[in-house]
Amino acid sequence: MKILLLLLTTNIVGGGTANSVVSYETIKSEFTRINFESEKINLTTQNMNSVEVDLSYLESHEVVTSEEIKEAVIVELVVANAHFDWINDFLESYLLSNSNSWSTIGINYDLPESGSSVDYKARFLPKYDTKFEGVMAVDITLSNNSSGEIPSEDKNLSEVILNTNLGWIMDNKSETIKNNVLLQNKSLDGSEFYVDINSITNSGAKLVAIENSGYFGFVSVKFKDLGERTNISQVITTTDLGEISDNSKSTIVNKVVLKNKDITINDFNVEDITNNSARIVASDSSIYYGTVDVEFTIKVTNPDPNPENDLSKMIGSLGNIDNIKTITILERFAEVNSDFKIDTNDLKLENITYSKAKLVPKNDNFIGSLELTYRVESQVVNDVKFSTRETNAEAYNSTKTDSDNFTIEYDIKTDINDFKNHFTKLRISYSGYMYNQKQNGWNNTDWKDGTEDVIDIDWNNLQNGTAWKHQEYIGKQNSNWNDIKLTIELSGSKLTFKFEVISKAKATWINAYYSRAKAQLSVSKLEFISDKTKEI
User: pTM of the predicted model, to two decimals?
Assistant: First the structure.
């Protein structure tokens, strides 16, 4: 029934456009590969099923030809009488000869008026065809159920049901077919069409637009009934493949076939391969469905006691490194182990701290693992210059204060306890000045660019006071103060460094009627320092 299957599984008459009707030229190309049998068929003795052909979808065509109607009639005729073994031979002869070998009487291939139908008693007579004799009589009704107008907002069903090949489905029940159509055509919700139960075969069915759904026409879909297939787990019963030479796809395929005699290499594919297992997936074209997992061990012959890809045999002490970025650690590892062929893309790090990390393979190019140890001397918090304005307190028989500040924030992106344990000092690179007026001039303190102070960080008492300060006081006739200080706050993983400059001038009749103080601070770099001086 090769040609009939072609008709049933092609989006034939339902699309509502000329392109949705199966092309005779396409069908002819299939017929040329079929051989006639020698026996004659007496058409007069055949009890043909009557046919009703709904041509309403042709209403939207600007021009309707008799050939379009003839094609629709012949397709419906073959589908309705698929139980005859010779029906494909008739179709072949009728199409290949372009109807020249046949006479057709009793039917006009005209589109009926909208909302009407015409009944015909058609007769098909073979003129030159030696395969058939007699007369094939069949009642044919041509109908046009259209009202004559298709609302502009209505769409042809074929415009939204684009995936008509459903592949393998569990069975050919109408509900199963509809669910699979919806699964493969996501824009639908099921209110647009129904499955014509009279059209269902083992390989196809017709979907018909529901009235007033906003759609018109019909679409044919094709499928393969899963009920006709066997779960592949029922034929691949030996899933332990034992020892194999390697885990290549071809090796696994050959071993599966060797261990399971009822399966062939064309029945399945191999996926999800690991060093000791793989998944067997039934091929779409096979008589099986489903998956089954197999396991194996890879045979090791004459293993090298010191293989060049064994990480545990390499050097893990890396010395000083600049930071704990993955690329920094891996590149340093490759540098220290330059005698080995190392591609850092084949490796990855786990459990990274400021003193060690675990090195493991990313793929099969390496084996084993290795603990890496190293020393990170410092961690830059900020290397962008921050500055206060100049504070200036000037008092005439009064007390004046002027201040300014800035903050620098830093997010600890590693384990906080590891960070605090590793870094216990802070290096501050700064510049600035403090000026205080004395009775006979100025008391000046200047810090040039690159001035550095290193302070201890008491992580447990950050909130209890100033971490760093410079203070200057001039008394006697003039009372002036300049304070420069740093406070540090830790909230969660966020560090906030607050630098503040305060200038204060006090002038009274007791000491002087005029007093003045000014100061300014710039911080160019903040850097945590490790006090773990031992070389790793």
Answer: 0.42
Q: What angle do CA 347, 349, 351 make, to 5 degrees?
A: 160
Asked whether 7 and 22 are in contact (CB, 8 A), the reply is yes
Say whether pLDDT at 10 is over 50.
no
Rounded Cα distance between 317 and 331, Å, is: 13
Centroid of chain to Cα 468:
52
DSSP symbol at 87: H
Q: What is the CA radius of gyration of the chain?
A: 45
H/E stretch holding 29: helix 24-31
Q: Which of 159-173, 400-414, 419-433 has the lowest mean pLDDT?
A: 159-173
Integer angstrom CA distances of residue 487 from 75, 278, 284, 342, 412: 90, 60, 70, 46, 18
Question: Of all residues in the chain, what percent carry a pLDDT higher than 90?
Answer: 16
Residue 361 has a pLDDT of 93
At 520-529, the pLDDT tens digits run: 999 999 998 8
Is residue 515 within 8 Å of residue 479, measured between CB atoms? yes
CA distance 375 to 357: 11
Are 450 and 429 within 8 A, CB to CB?
Answer: yes
152-199 pLDDT, tens per residue? 577 888 888 888 888 777 778 888 889 989 988 888 888 889 998 888
Contact 314, 340 (CB under 8 A): yes
Are 146 and 123 contacting, i.e. CB atoms less than 8 angstroms apart?
no
Amino acid at 476: K
320, 264 contact by CB (below 8 A): no
Q: Are 59 and 144 in contact, with CB atoms under 8 Å apart? A: yes
Q: How far is CA 435 from CA 470, 500, 504, in A?
A: 12, 16, 11
Mean pLDDT, range 464-490, rounded to an integer: 79
Residue 486: closest CA among 427, 401, 415, 421:
427
